[in-house]
Design brief:
mainly alpha
Length: 725
């Protein structure tokens, strides 16, 4: 066997190195300024700006101008304008007695925008259609609010001085978008004017002789449209996540540069690398140091922001009457920790390539500027956290933070954001480790990013972890994006064409892309993929598990459902599969067999050998199973989050088979049979809600027999060590 000098990863040594690096970072005054001084000074200034902006907005919206009011008929417009004019006149009379009272209301005017639904002949359905048209105009900002007087009778608007009895007020529904300041101001204006008109009429009727016995009066009843208005206006609360994220980036930038390019420029990095410590441990210690500073920055900024918003009173202005709750702060902090983990890895990746402090700054300035774009995108109206945006780096974090501030997010998109961001962080850290160990970069020789693509001189039995993680970080988001586009634009395609395209995407991403990485790594495929022939007992064990494990998998999936709609979504998936089978026949089996083969080649092949080169059986099996389960969460479609536990458990079983058999073949056979059996059950037992005990017993017997076969006649895989690698 070829010699590969590996060293065991020692966590205690990494923590000691990280403590040393962190102590040096925190002694630097520039770090203290970024960590403490900037937040303390920044947020009070920002609160003043926000308050001035809010006051300016209020002044603008409260200034006298015409409000565009949507109404269903000319009769309702005539009644509304008449009562509004009476209210304004009453306010003018009060203003003469109390100078300065309601002056801005006196110059306001109502400009009716009429759909023109004739009251004499309009049916309830026609009125509803007209109201829906007005709501569309409201969302498009063509009107400021909608006024509906549903109980107005035909002809009542002709003589506006007479009408129903005064003790019978006509309800006047006013629809307004909750996040439209102009509409809210128009609502306050109309409410004040109508209240003044009603008060004046009642006063006249009670105190003066000769007044009419019947007066037409309106009783405003506001209806706030929260959901329909969410796409129409920019909320200032979307700016807060951007500020927090940018401040977290700022806190991590200087330590990342100083611990890599700074040490290289000072000439101390060569001495550090010459120490008898693996380079990956050195980089891990630096990563932990940068991450700690980023987390401290996030904590200080979140604390300063909370105190400032509470002190200035802006919390209720930006986030509603409840302000900022403790639960919201914990959620935002968790999201900032996730972002800090991702961006710290990205910063170390870039700064590890730089040969000087100035070069590192040249790399990071465009990165900082590019980080502003996602924040601006999050403030755009109508942009939602779904589809492709859930896997788009940095954009998904900002959108998720915005949704947290604006009322919460769904579990499915949130899980995809968390999983993909962690994948990106692992990939960036792995690439940073590879760049950090490049001799040309270390000793300031001329090099380029193409050095990372240079093939080794001799074949290797495993792929570097950095390459394996980068391959996974590219495969999963791209496949998620392609499948999301297919679900959106492939509705007009036939089921057979959808299956063919899906198989082609799987072959391209889970087949061709790993093949490129295997070629660049000059792999010995027999060793790297575990293609050695297994014992017959291991093959039989794989077959037994493949045909008997599915009842236990179904039971586990049923138990891991996170909400009551899980069975409905599972039924929709089964119904879709049955429709495909009715259209294309047995071709539907390729939809589950091809992905099973490709997934085994990667997860129990390339990724497996990469993990085995650095860890023992528990690490290899556990990490590969977690990544296997996380991948199925992202690509799970309608059954995303519910697949986490069952897929991870399946990954553990497949990994155990691969380790005990010393070969890829038994796990590949099991995976193919397992998927095929699940598909057959879905086709033949589509409406079954409960899993019979006979199925469960059959699964337990098959699992027991397979364990016995592997334990007694398996051929355990040897761990790669410096002596046998």
């Amino acid at each position: 066997m070829r010699e590969y000098h590996l060293s065991a990863f020692e966590l205690s040594r990494v923590l000691r190195l990280a403590q040393k690096e962190l102590r040096e970072i925190l002694r630097d005054r520039r770090t203290i300024v970024t960590l403490v001084a900037m937040p303390v000074l920044l947020y009070p200034v920002m609160s003043v700006v926000f308050m001035q902006f809010t006051l300016a907005s209020k002044a603008t919206t409260q200034a006298g101008h015409g409000f565009n009011v949507g109404v269903l008929s000319a009769d309702e417009a005539r009644v509304l304008q008449h009562r509004f004019a009476i209210g304004q006149q009453a306010l003018r009379n009060r203003t003469e007695e109390e100078p300065g009272l309601h002056k801005k209301l006196l110059d306001a005017s109502l400009e009716p925008v009429i759909v023109d639904v004739p009251r004499q002949s309009a049916s309830p359905e026609q009125r509803m259609e007209g109201l829906e048209i007005l709501k569309l105009w409201l969302n498009d900002q063509k009107i400021d609010l909608i006024v509906e007087i549903p109980d107005l009778k035909p002809g009542e608007s002709k003589d506006l001085s007479r009408g129903p009895p005064a003790d019978h007020l006509l309800p006047c529904r006013i629809y307004v978008l909750a996040n439209n300041p102009i509409g809210l101001n128009a609502l306050r204006t109309i409410e004040t004017a109508l209240a003044a008109a009603n008060t004046a009429d009642l006063t006249e009727r009670l105190n003066l002789p000769g007044t009419p016995h019947h007066i037409l009066m309106l009783s405003p009843r506001p209806v706030l449209l929260d959901q329909s208005g969410s796409d129409g206006f920019i909320s200032l609360s979307a700016l807060v996540p951007l500020i927090l994220i940018l401040m977290t980036i700022t806190g991590a930038v200087y330590p990342a540069i100083d611990l890599t390019a700074g040490e290289r420029e000072r000439g101390t990095l060569e001495i550090l690398v010459a120490a008898p410590v693996p380079r990956f441990e050195l980089l891990t210690a630096k990563y932990l140091s940068v991450l700690t500073v980023a987390i401290l920055t996030a904590l200080v900024n979140l604390l300063c922001m909370t105190i400032t918003l509470a002190w200035s009173g802006l919390a209720t202005t930006l986030f509603g009457s409840e302000g900022i709750s403790l639960q919201l702060l914990i959620q935002v902090l968790a999201l900032l920790l996730l972002f800090a983990a991702f961006f710290s890895a990205v910063l170390l990746c870039l700064t590890s390539f730089a040969r000087s402090f100035k070069e590192a700054q040249a790399y990071l300035i465009p990165l900082m500027l590019a980080s502003l774009a996602p924040g601006v995108m999050a403030m755009l109206p109508g942009l939602r956290l779904d589809g492709v945006l859930t896997v788009l780096p940095l954009v998904n974090i900002v959108l998720m933070a915005r949704d947290l501030f604006e009322g919460g997010i769904e579990a499915g998109p949130a899980t995809v954001v968390v999983v993909t961001t962690l994948m990106y962080a692992l990939a960036a850290l792995a690439l940073a480790a590879r760049v950090f160990g490049a001799e040309s970069v270390l000793y300031s020789e001329q090099s380029s990013w193409a050095d990372l693509l240079r093939r080794p001189a001799v074949p290797r039995p495993f792929l570097p972890i950095s390459s394996a993680l980068w391959c996974l970080a590219l495969m999963v988001p791209i496949q998620f994006t392609v499948f999301a586009l297919l679900r959106s634009f492939g509705k007009n395609l036939s089921p057979g064409m959808n299956i063919v395209i899906g198989i082609g995407v799987n072959l391209l991403l889970f087949g061709a892309l790993p093949a490129v990485f295997a070629y660049l790594g000059r792999l010995d495929l027999t060793e790297a993929l575990g293609l050695q022939l297994p014992t017959p007992a291991a093959v039989i064990a794989g077959i037994l598990l493949g045909v008997s494990l599915w009842p236990l998998q179904l039971r586990l999936m049923a138990e891991s459902g996170l909400d009551a709609s899980m069975h409905d979504r599972l039924g929709q998936v089964v119904s879709s599969v049955r429709d495909m089978y009715a259209s294309v026949g047995n071709l539907v089996f390729a939809m589950v067999i091809v992905p099973a083969i490709l997934e085994e080649i990667f997860f129990r092949g390339l990724l497996w050998s990469a993990l085995r080169s650095q860890g023992g059986p528990l690490t290899t099996i556990g990490v590969s199973a977690l990544l296997f389960g996380a991948t199925h969460v992202i690509l799970g479609g309608a059954l995303g989050l519910e697949r986490l536990v069952p897929s991870t458990v399946l990954g553990l079983i497949l990994g155990a088979i691969c380790w005990r058999s010393g070969s890829l073949w038994p796990s590949l056979v099991q995976h193919v049979l397992h998927n095929s059996m699940l598909l057959m059950v879905s086709l033949n037992e589509p409406d079954r809600q409960e899993i019979p005990w006979e199925w469960i017993a059959f699964g337990c017997c098959g699992l027991t027999a397979a364990v016995v076969l592997l334990w007694k006649w398996g051929k355990p895989q040897e761990q790669l060590t410096p002596s046998n690698a």
